[in-house]
């Protein structure tokens, strides 16, 4: 990456990103060094406890995957389909995935969609897609 | 002057969002997983449609109440509602097991309110004094004070210091995206028009704090059951007042400590509560009773966490350096209003806003007692809504909130990318607050560094020779080596204590 220098000085736009890049290299090396020590069994056990707490179930991983796909899909189609239908489908799909019954999912997605629509579109005058 | 301040906040467009904010605070605080920080990030887009004072009242009301409401599930269920209630679990839940939940929560709400009052009083005195000093600052001092903010954040945040530092430099990098402030040259935009003005701060915040919360919750589908609380729910504020009076010194001490810790960048109400608990235990005549459900164990952390919320505003108002993630988001947002946080906030038109903030803070603490009692009552009903409903709702708010700012889908994509980044960082033990702080302080540090260098013609010496600079540099060095020093002290004490067990 090359940025032009500010006229008459050496402290142009490139100075700060260069400092950051240099520090990232140093810190990355430090982290690598630490990780090796950890694997050798000398490191602190605090980070292991954190990792232990975060181990996920297979149902949990499925939830995460569906959620990420749902958000991407929402961003992709909301412009074409409009706010209300997209949101209804989005909320219903997620609630079903998280284990709510069909009837409750329908009721809650309608309620929440209505609430958000009224709040943003009518009260706050946001032009929703 | 007080009359003017009251007149400026006693208006419908301030009072209504204020009360709504406080009610939302009950909801957010009482549900484990939802934090005051996340609520602030989601509320900010809504506040754009309110006058600045109304928006401030909404966020401040929400944050202050949420910190207390987090203690409710901590006391009943042993699950802290927000990270700040971690220390309140210890003795609060023990008291519940002994059938004294109402006593614990009554003590809690009174001490939270008192802690907040002390915190805001110290804020009014401290921020005004600090701002007077900060008016004398030049490039050099601002550079060092900002660096000090980042350094404390690295040291205090959870996780190792290397990971904290990595988060800081990631944030600094994000802050360099967009048109260079000094020369006007676009950096790291890859020809994308949306990135010319830099990464939009609010969508980034919503993503960082909202998305990981959702992903973390749905990953471990945990069921939250209300345990049958044997005791009849009877809350007598009058009954605990003598106890609070008896421990008035503890309340005061914990609140002052809480305010101080809250004012350090990167250390928020959560750390304030733990430190106050630890101090109360150390100063107690019978430390072995801590953790068995005693009054002091409830009083210390709950006074300190509410004081910490106020403390975070001291550097935010006086220096423009946020003391915690909540003030970080508000500072980032206020720059879009055209406000420049820092010593100049106290003069001119924005001075009214600062005084309004003080008044709102104080009154919110007084309102905390009735709202808190309401919250304790409403608690059972809040839990009727399962996480499978709340999580999709939060996702929707993240999406709509980041869209509403500029009516731009690009902001939504940005929000989502930062959400994934935040999730990835949390999973790997890289703390988020240093990243947020660095995004805000990055432009400040870069501009002051480069303008300073231009003025001196590349000479670095003036950065180190001014008296205030020297003090701040020493403080940075002290802070960064703090762990080493305490470890050394521990080792010396350990060897000394070994001979006399």
Written account of the structure:
- The complex is a heterodimer of chains A (129) and B (501).
- Chain A is mainly alpha-helical.
- Chain A has helices at residues 15-39, 46-53, 58-81, 83-97, 102-123.
- Chain A is 73% helix and 0% strand.
- The longest helix of chain A has 25 residues, at 15-39.
- Chain B has 501 residues and is mostly helical.
- Chain B has one domain.
- Chain B has helices at residues 2-9, 12-30, 36-47, 52-69, 71-77, 88-97, 101-134, 139-156, 161-176, 201-219, 237-246, 248-263, 269-283, 295-311, 313-319, 325-336, 349-382, 387-406, 409-427, 433-456, 462-465, 467-480, 482-498, and strands at 178-179, 186-187.
- In chain B, strands 1-2 form a two-stranded antiparallel ribbon.
- In chain B, helix 5 (71-77) packs antiparallel against helix 7 and helix 16 crosses helix 20.
- The radius of gyration of chain B is 23 Å and the shape is globular.
- The model of chain B is unreliable at 223-232 and 495-501 (pLDDT under 50).
- The interface between A and B is large, with 61 and 54 residues.
Low-confidence stretches of chain B: 223-232, 495-501
- How many beta strands in the DSSP annotation of chain B? 2
Question: Kindly state the mean pLDDT of chain A as a whole number?
Answer: 78
Our Rg estimate of chain A from Cα atoms comes to 24 Å
Helix run count of chain A:
5
Instruction: Please tell me the total number of domains of chain B.
Output: 1
pLDDT averaged residue by residue of chain B: 81
What separation lies between the terminal Cα atoms of chain A?
38 Å
Quote the beta fraction of chain A: under 5%
Strand content of chain B: under 5%
Radius of gyration of chain B: 23 Å
Oligomeric state of the chains?
A: heterodimer
| Number of helical regions of chain B | 23
Largest sheet of chain A: none
Helix residue percentage of chain A: over 70%
- Give the CA-based shape of chain B: globular
Gap between N and C termini of chain B:
61 Å
